[in-house]
Design brief:
Shape: globular
Radius of gyration: 16 Å
Structural class: alpha+beta
Strand content: 5-15%
Strand order of the largest sheet: 1-2
Helix content: 40-55%
Number of strands: 2
Number of helices: 4
Order of helices and strands: HEEHHH
């Protein structure tokens, strides 16, 4: 119970303080990579229950002549590399923490 309270307080405060950064990053992702701004992926959570994890998008949805997605290394743009290397792409996960899908302390999904 104390861990959950800590998750709520810290993630809520972090989201509040980082909201200007989140807005700027969302705009940059939208301009440089298009929409959607958030990458959503279903991951197993507590007791194997699936949840939808959110991150900022870091790759384009470039396709070849047959309509197949290009390999990851060709779709990852320099801005996306920066987001990943600085871990800024993971800031939306604070919403998952606030919702109770993830915790600040513990194993990664």
């Amino acid at each position: 119970m104390l861990k959950r309270l800590l998750d709520i307080c810290v993630s809520g405060l972090a989201l509040l303080l980082l909201s200007p950064v989140l807005v700027v990053l969302a705009i940059l992702v939208r301009v440089k990579l298009g929409s959607p701004v958030l990458f959503r992926q279903t991951r197993p959570g507590l007791h194997g229950e699936p949840f939808e994890m959110m991150k900022f998008r870091t790759m384009t949805d470039g396709r070849d002549a047959n309509g197949e997605l290009l390999p990851d290394d060709q779709r990852l743009v320099p801005f996306g590399r920066f987001l990943r290397s600085s871990s800024l792409d993971e800031l939306p996960e604070l919403l998952n923490v606030l919702r109770g899908d993830m915790s600040l302390v513990g194993p990664r999904p």
